[in-house]
Amino acid sequence: MGATRNGKQSLSGSANLIIEVDEDKIRCKQYSWYFAPAYLLFWVGLFFAVIYPLFQALPTGIKISEEADKPGRFVAERAQEILLKISQMGPRVVGDVDNEVTVVNLLLDEIEKVRQVMRDDIYQMEVEVQRASGSYLIKGLTNHYQGVQNVIVRLSTKSSNSTSYLLVNSHYDTKPGSPGAGDDAAMVVVMLEVLRLVAISGDPFLHPIIFLFNGAEEQPMQGSHGFITQHRWAANCKALLNLDSAGAGGRDLLFQGGPNHPWLMEHYRNSAPHPFATTTAEEMFEAGIIPSDTDFRIFRDFGVVPGLDMAGVYNGFVYHTKFDRYTVISRDSLQNSGDNLLALVRSISNAEEMYDTEAYAAGHAVFFDFIGLFFVHYQESTSLALNLSFSFGAIFLVCLSLWKMSRVTGQSMGTYAGVFGLLFLLALAGVLLAVAFPLLMATFYDWGNRTLTYYSNSWLVIGLYICPSVIGLVLPMTLYLSHKKCNKIPHTYYMHIVGHANCVLLAILCLGTTALKYRSAYLFLISLIFYVAALIINLLTRLHCRGYLWSLVLIVFQIVPFIYHAYLFHMFILILIPMAGRFGVSTNPDLLISALCAFGTILALSFAAPLINVFRRPNCMLGGLALVMFIFSMITVSDVGFPYRPKTNVMRADFMQVHRKFFEYNGSISLEDSGYYFHLGDRNIEAPLRDHMNLTNLVRLGEDCDSELMCGIPCYRYCSARKHALWLAREEPVELPYPTVLDFLSKTVLSGGYQVRYEFRVTGPPNMGLFFKPLDGVKLLRWTFAPAMLDNPATYRPPLEVMLTYGIDNTPIEFFVELSKDNGNFDEPVFEMGVSGHYVSPHDKRDALSQQFLATVPDFAFSMEWPSSYERHIF
């Protein structure tokens, strides 16, 4: 270090580089401690002033009286009037008259109204009701259906000769007990209004449009399977717009696209006026984190139709409950959906890419909206280039900054490298603690049987998970900077290096996620871009060496990434908190919610939070955050922390009123009883119900699962959680609306003597189930149903589940099974078969005792319930 001249230092290096700098500007004092709370409140205020209102923003719904002044615009009020009619029908389950007749007639009437006003000089319309039957494998069960219905409209321009169709799909059936205003009647009425607007517009379009009003999505996805595998127009469908919902009202999230057709994202960017999308949601959906599915899967897997999958995600608390009513769907939310769909239909129906979509299949896309203001998308190859460029560029600029610091202070580059290495390890420790502290909170609450305390008051996650995450993020750095004794490097430069350490850590994460082919690496990229921009400005303007002035530039450049990341994770938390109520009893949902809060905190505040160390007494700020955390913890053990609320945030307490019979090989009945089979939705199991319902003799059926076929219960659809089922016996038999009957038609030993064929006929309600379990030495070879399970015995092990559904066609279902037996002796038991009947229609009466029991369900719970039968046979 050279001599001091006029308060400045002359610094020379090995290359005779001389830098003059005012030492006072480097070694300036930290800001007063009382500015620190204002600094943290700035970020809180930014969230509530910008992010929250923009997240809630919806266009104003257009009224019918305004239509003349706004020609060609989606009219939300007209859609709302039809929504009221559909919602008033109540639940519409497959096989019930409301689903197979009433709502179908309403749709045909509304379509006819469109035909009456259509420009028939320009367009032609074809309408039909499809009745489909089929069988396929989905999610571990064979789905066999008969006579399910779809209402289909083909609208085309008379002058068009295109054989490429745009398919638009939504469904009008519902879950048992739910009016389904949000899922999915709202999208049905949006489609009807879009159909009307296109048909009266007078604007030609290149490609015919198929409007598929799907009558069996909840079964699951039978209507879409029936269309795409059997209908004559299916092969011509080259692009898809799928509309569904995991909530009621609000904005529609684009959460799946393609796959491998980024041109669809280009049309979304250019046409959708209210963008709301993220590729991270797509990857979470594909990973199974979100417990839902849509028809998009069927069109993709069975029809290879690329498309865009959009769903309402707001207010998932009413999803699949009786509270999913007309009143929870605002006119503004219909306007939002209608504006987007109308624009997309107009754009894609005129797309040149539709003539040969495979020519434009160019890999996956990265896509996201920025707080609803605009939409960004680029191809995966571009993502690779951007991620690599900014990650390595950030590392280079960090090295350049460290070199400049060493030249300014006269310390060796090795000294700065050592400090950087130490601070990098502290940054890594901070990230790990930012994840660990919320996870520990979630674990402790689970141990104390206090899960889902935030379920009705989502703001509680601020104190429970976000504050602990912020503490963990900055704790290692703050402790080190507060107690370090080395003064060779100014505190201002230490703070620089803290940011650099976080930058390099994010660059490594960006490179790692890119190498693993996660397109969500763009989240790290956004943080890197703005940190690099701030660093470049500081280096070029010499603010780099002027005390803490560089931090002002950094703060300004952190506003955009903070807004985006806080917006994104706010969205995920609002989506997944309602879903946490149906994750099942074996999963601690608090772990997922706390992890989301942690990752959101890290991405939003990884550069901003450590800057509390530019203020004096940063430990006091950590103490303040710990105090907030303690206060929120105390709130959660009060009534505020009780998870559920009537009507708005209900507990899922589904159960069936079951009558069981166990038949032995000789036809005798070894057991006949009745009871309530509970399938509870969340981690709290039955505990919240015990103060309101008589559950004294409630038992878990896990032990019976080893000795009884399907645990001896009529599990419905996906039965993987049956080991967690609960059973409450009752003395009086359950009275079924009508019987489910299995007729044994014939048994034939086939040529060779080692195979046998059994034939059966089953009659009963529109929803039934079959379960097959070959005994020792027996193999199930063939059956009437889709063969995929039997073709993959290593994957699908007995017992095998077949779901039977019929819609408008209630013809008895006949089926056969063929088996082989090692010893060829078919005069002894060969296999077990279970038969269940599910009386899910709202018109199927519950017996008096069941109604009395149902009346004891507390008002904070909703039960999707119905009578059910179960018979176990041995053949």
TrEMBL record:
Gene name of the record: Dyak\GE12444
SUPFAM superfamilies in the cross-refs: Zn-dependent exopeptidases (SSF53187)
Transmembrane segments: 33-55, 384-403, 415-439, 459-481, 493-515, 521-540, 552-579, 591-615, 622-644
Pfam families attached to this UniProt entry: ERMP1_C, Peptidase_M28
Keywords, alphabetical: Endoplasmic reticulum, Glycoprotein, Hydrolase, Membrane, Metal-binding, Metalloprotease, Protease, Transmembrane, Transmembrane helix, Zinc
Residues covered by the Peptidase M28 domain: 150-345
Family named by the database record: Belongs to the peptidase M28 family.
GO molecular function: metal ion binding; metalloexopeptidase activity
Bilayer disposition of the protein: Multi-pass membrane protein
GO cellular component: endoplasmic reticulum membrane
Name of this protein: FXNA-like protease
Broad class of where this protein is predominantly found: endoplasmic reticulum
One example of a Gene Ontology biological process annotation: proteolysis
Keyword Repeat: no
Subcellular location per the Swiss-Prot or TrEMBL entry: Endoplasmic reticulum membrane
Boundaries of every Endoplasmic reticulum metallopeptidase 1-like C-terminal domain copy: 648-872
Cofactor(s) needed: Zn(2+)
PANTHER family, alphabetized: ENDOPLASMIC RETICULUM METALLOPEPTIDASE 1 (PTHR12147:SF22), METALLOPEPTIDASE M28 FAMILY MEMBER (PTHR12147)
Matching InterPro entries: ERMP1-like_C, Fxna-like_M28_dom, M28_fam, Peptidase_M28
UniProt source species: Drosophila yakuba
